[in-house]
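Researcher: Here's my situation. A collaborator sent me these components and asked whether they could plausibly form a single complex. I don't have experimental data yet, so a predicted model of the whole assembly would be a useful starting point for our discussion.
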Amino acid sequence: MSKKLRFTVALWLATVIFLPLAAIGAGRVSLDKYHSYEEVVALVRNMQSAYPDLTTLLSAGKSYQGRELWVVQVTNRKIGVPEEKPAVFVAGSLRGDEPVGTEAALAVIDHLLSTYASDQRVRQLVDSRTFYIWPLPNPDAHDATVKQPGKAEIANRRPTDEDRDGRFDEDGAEDLDGDGFVAQMRVRDEKGDFVPSRDDPRVMVPRSRRTRAELAYRLYREGLDSDGDGACNEDGPGGVLLNANFPVGWKLDTELPGSGMYPGSEPETEAMLHFLINHPNVALLIVYQSGDGMLYRPFDSMEDKEIPRLDREVYELFGKRYERITGYGLTHGYPEATKRDTTTAAEEEALKRALAEELPGELSVDDILRMGNIRELVNSPEARTYIQQYGIGQSTIDKLIRLQELRQSGRRATSAPTERRRKPQYGTLLDWAYKDYNVYALSPSVWTLPAEYGKTDTVRKEAEETRWIGFFQDEWQGKGFIPWHPYRHPTLGDVEIGGWVGFYRRNPPPGKWLEKVCQQQAAFVVEAAELTPAITIASVEVVPLQVLGNTGQASASRGGDGAIILTAGKGGDGALTLAQVKVTVQNTAPVGTRCALGRRTRYAQQPPRAVLAYLEGQGGALEFVSLPKVLRLGNLEGTNTKELALQERRQAEARTERRPPSGPEQEEETSEEVGTEPDRATGSWLVKIPNTVRALKVRAVAEKGGVAEKTVQLRW
Amino acid sequence: MRSPGKSHGEESFLVNWKNYQDYEGMTKILKGLAARFPKLAKLYSTGKSRMGRELWVMEITNFASGDTLEKPGFYIDGNIHGNEVNGMMVPLYSCWYLLTRCGHDDFVTDLVDRLVFYIRPSVNPDAMNSFITEPNTMHHPRWNYRPIDNDGDGLYDEDPEEDLNGDGEISLMRKRDPLGRWKVSPDDPRLLVPCKASEPPGGWTLLGTEGMDNDGDGRINEDIPGGLDMARNFPYDYSVQNGWPFPISEPETKGVIEFFRTHPNINGVFHYHNSGNLIMMALGKDARMESAPTATGERRRRGGPELPPLSPEEKKLMEGFMNVSVEPSRQRDLTMYQILAARGVQILKYRPTLNGGAGQFPPWTYSMYGAPSFLIELWGIPGDYDGDGDVSETEALRWVDEELHGEGWIPWKPFTHPQLGEIEIGGTYAKFVRRSPPARFLEEHCLANTRFHLYVASELPRLELTKADFVPICSFSRAAKSGEGATGELVDLKLKEASAEKGVIGWLDVEIRNQGVVPTATAQAVTIKATRPDRLRLVPSSGIQILGRSDPPNALGWLSGFTTESPAEVEVGYLEGRSSKGYRFLVKVLQGKAGTITIEYNSQRGGVLRKTIPVRFAS
């Protein structure tokens, strides 16, 4: 194991940096614990000193509390320029309570570096691609979590006045019973929304309408009403939920608590946005999360029909590889709209609009609906006076009643305990990366209850909850679920403390479970990176049209009879040749140089860079007869997408024959010849080549497909 | 003695306002004002532009009259588009106007005492400075200086416009061409007009703005320096197509938005652009201007705002904005805008209209921050000689001839272009004619606009204590120091320990009024919870106790909503424009001790009102 030896030696050579030895074992990052910020930084610094040619540490900025936002660049710097290679961006979780994402990101770096010498596939990738790995997107909350997993923090550390009382972060959760965990509190309350499950009374389940009131409980997070406003834990430390702070689908804080003052308002998210925009070579983005094991693709905030078919196929390609490695498939966050949903939504919308017109201005529709059951309300004397005073008709009242019914039935459907529905998420990195940044974006949800503990049960959710408790007992010394025990609470009275501790469901136990997650994710990044675009120059053809003299200036004029009269200059010594230089650029990777959604988007200021080709003479300057000198060759499909693209193109052509084209969805203007091979593009220059030129160099640059060069020798 | 015929302090800091300033000139005026009026003005920077210029903000208030964050804030900026330089001159003039007149003009003095002004003359100082100091068309440079590859060839900003003939202006290029589709206008030989499809060729081809093909791609001026449109870079109704790469991506816009985070007291926003003579008001992108009044609009209008008397011309300008429809919950914001805009119509003769969304700044300050927000499209060339409501090209030229003696029109002149051969350059207006007023009209232009935004500032919430009356109930001479509560069928009220205190119990009726048209929180601010709810608090000195609180009595003396739970503090929510709210407090005053009751009304955007009322017994 010379590799191991080399790593260890390099480690000891790096004397300037302190490294907790426990973190390193057998040349790999040890996974018997979660690493704190300092430990992660020490680890990556050591990786850099062990593999200086492959690793560069970049800082993208500082977190709210001033921790450095490190990006580890992994690529072979001796081959090519890192910024010109197609890049894969990998980020740990944006939630502070998911340090498993950080470990997965570290495992990717570790895998790329430690197998570079031994694994042909990895070497090829690290030579030809650039990896930007961002292990700690939310370092402040991550650090707090790792140091006290029982009190995990999710949001960043910006002080926020959640309860709008003018004070910041004054009522957070507390570990009341001093067991080191902030768990839950349950209090008997006839109006509570939860009941103990019949199968397992430890597990609290949402209360159905049939449950008797005396069984009901109210659930709280463990803690006090520290500011004496009657609510417990409503203004905790921090913060902004970073994965709700990106621009696509972003909503105001009032609609989506924790979304921040504006998209990108946080130092952590702003730094990531700037980093990505400044690295347009990124072709694939992977951001870790935790929860159900699946691989998430966009959209979190929009309906699936917004994704072009071609991109869906590409996502399937990633999904198949993920499934082969992990056993979990591809999914997306935004719920499928059922037919009922859409018709109800449309009816609700229509009613709301009609009512806004019909009702007097003083009260909004929502105000009236909040007053109570309209059917009963209309008979009250106050309502009668109001109805008479404003001349509100019976049809308006009927509309109000119908709207209220629709809303109530909608609420019942979504809160039914047996139905696990996907939920839309707004302002996520995943959606921004795909929709506005136009790269393929994936979010592996790396951890869930292992399959050994039974399958996910969408019908009887509580059965799965019981199995979680079993898993915690077997694998995590019983942490994660605290048995309910009585506690005398200063404001709530007699309560029971116990239940779930968030951290343990979102992160695998260190050791074999964490190792498994890390191995799988590292393997997936390698497989996914292999799909990213890579261009080559398939051919350069030089077609001499005419040998010219170096004084061979011709002129033309018109004769009196309209004839064209040409005057030839002297010359013919062969010092210049008029030639057509034809280049064909090809994408040899499975995925195209730009996602289909990106190609549809029209940018007012900065058009997305197509594949550009440059021509240069060696030994003398070329004189360009045709313009432009820089050829724009458009975007190239990949080997796996070209068939589908061709089909779509034929369909589109058939459609345009039937009706005239309309504005926004046109392809950008390029000199590309639309052929039968969408993964290739050909362009040509007309140039005068002096006979001093010994070679022609063609260079092709794709923003997300790398650089290709070819030199053609000329013999005169 | 103040007199309309005397100086109002102008000589304390003389500025020639018939002159456009560049960045240096602007900075010199701002620094000079801050140095001359240290008790009224502070100048600070909210960061640096892309080219390293300071992003100045001038804060103006009477610093001696209270904590600035406890006063309603009024924010003015302009010139987010670098070429819109009158958008910078109006806020700059406004700084000077407020500071020099304060102490000489009661209206201004009152504003400077009660309010705090945050004035940012230029959001885009880089492009502004280039526009003023270098040859340019009236349209460029508009954006900031983020390098952008407009033509997608891998090079940045490599094909700018050039002043080829060195006349200090960028104008148009034309070439004689037997097949050209442009002809000399029959109305004025200086103008070129396009030929109609049925007409023969007109003899001229237009070749675009003055410049060269610098990058050899066969196109002229297709990758000019900069940048992105910062007026599409704000988060409300943002789209990546126009606001690439993401909201608040620029140091200039970042400086603006973070300013609003640290100044939650701002309750009015003015944002200056040119041109078009418009008063645009942000009301959410769902607000619509109806062509004719709708039935509901008509109904609402009957109970609508009372406007100042308007001339027929002013009524016509106002008409469209009276037919705006908006979601009922925001109706009161529309009413507020209608009242404020009517004064704008009187002063400026601009047309009030809606400001939609699309990543612009005022729609963000209204919809996502909750402040009344105005976008002014300054100036439009005068010269509607035929009174058809439109200034035609020939009318504009006539105006230039008559008012500017021809200065401002660039005649066609022959030029030998290295790439295009024999051409002519000219045929446009100089920079300061069509989009911004010529310097000789600048001062009156700035004054009129300052008058309008200061009027709006004067209508910001003005809190007054309109009532603090004591209505005695009874006097007492023995009171329970501590009683024991009991429940049951028969309650035996025993005074556990009696004291020999003497005093009076009575009602204190308090009423707070907002005299301004602008509410302490707009309907939008309430919806998005942009503000902390207003609170009314009574702080009694020792010897005075607040025992309970209720709503004010109705005409028959009927009380409702009596409570003894935290009686001295009440969450009022907000005060609408020109409205009051009252409360009745049950107060116990002990004899023998002179005391005070401090009434404090605390509003994040309406200011803080504190009044201390002495209470004593007749001797």
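Model: Some features of this prediction you could bring to your collaborator: Chain A touches chain B through 49 residues (CB under 8 Å). Residues 557 and 565 of chain A are 5 Å apart (CA to CA).
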